[in-house]
Amino acid sequence: MVSTKMRNLINTIIMIAGLPLIAACSDEPQNRPGGSWGAAPKVVTQSVELRPLVDEIEALGTAKANESVEIRPRISSLVTRILFEEGQFVEKGDLLLELENSEIIAGLALAEASLSESRSLYNRSKELESTQAISASSLETLFAQVKVDEANVEAARAKLRNTVVRAPFSGRIGLRRISPGSFVNTDTVITTLDDVSVIKLDFSVPETFVNVVNEDMKILAHSLVFPGREFSGTVASIDTRLDPVSRAVQVRAVIPNDDGMLKPGMFMTVDLQRDRGDVLLAPEQSIVPEGTRQYVFVVSDGVAEKRQVTLGRRIPGFVVVSEGLLAGETVVTAGTHKVRDGAQVESFDASIAVSGTASDGG
User: Fold this and answer.
1) Which of 3, 89, 246, 281 sits a CA distance of 20 to 30 A from 74?
2) Between the CA of residue 346 and those of 6, 94, 276, 303, what are the distances in Å?
3) In a shared domain, residues 99 and 173
4) Are 43 and 346 in contact (CB under 8 A)?
5) Is 15 a member of any domain?
6) Where is pLDDT greater, at 271 or 24?
7) 0.90 exceeded by pTM
């Protein structure tokens, strides 16, 4: 038999072992870590609103002269006179260079003499046509010779014209690359001529901005050479096709350059904007991805509703919602992991919290 002392010891051990269970059963739910069973979780919310969205890109381009050409001779000869200065502004048709032409002048004189002789012979023979002293075929042969000699004279005159080089358009002369007495041919670059009164700026525009750019559109360009200065221009033309690799289209704008500050070859940037109008923007942190679908928790009257949404373009901190939400609705931005569809929540508006923090700090 168990003694009374032993029985009391056993009862004491049982009571000590049961104390934690009794204490656990007697604790109030609100004293548990994490809050009470069934208590509404606290979340941060923010309303979604219609806001204007403007896309901006910085296109890169290279400045080009309105007209640009390398001046080359059309024949091979020696340079006799140079009639331009480096950096000089010349008008269209101004004489730039003369080449040695004595042999060509002699050839022209010979061709003109042959023409004079053939014409004289033809005219005398034609007077005999009525008397039938010359056959019709012989007269035709003489006439053909006149035409050949006329062509030879024109060819000699063309060669003579090619012994001078004239400016094809008005512009500014570049560096001289030949000297008097130099032998030049059709591959020799004498100098360059650029019309920089207007600068052409070629730049690429991504496919998504193709419908933004149009002819006569005003643009603003910038150059690192002139920080803080804007160069205004107009879109002159747009290429008819996109590059299949870069998916971009070439655009050409013209920029007045009356002061001559812009030079061909300069690197320039163009700022372009596309107004998408008012779009519905939701905070990026409110999006709850599940597989290939996107959801948000919409809070109304303290109840959270899980709703699928269709997203559009993302911008820093926000995402465009094309379907699933209405302007003015409130979504959970912090604490989404604690929310279930149809559950009660205790929400705190993010904008109010931020303004309250700012005022407290003051």
Assistant:
1) 89
2) 56, 86, 36, 9
3) yes
4) yes
5) no
6) 271
7) no
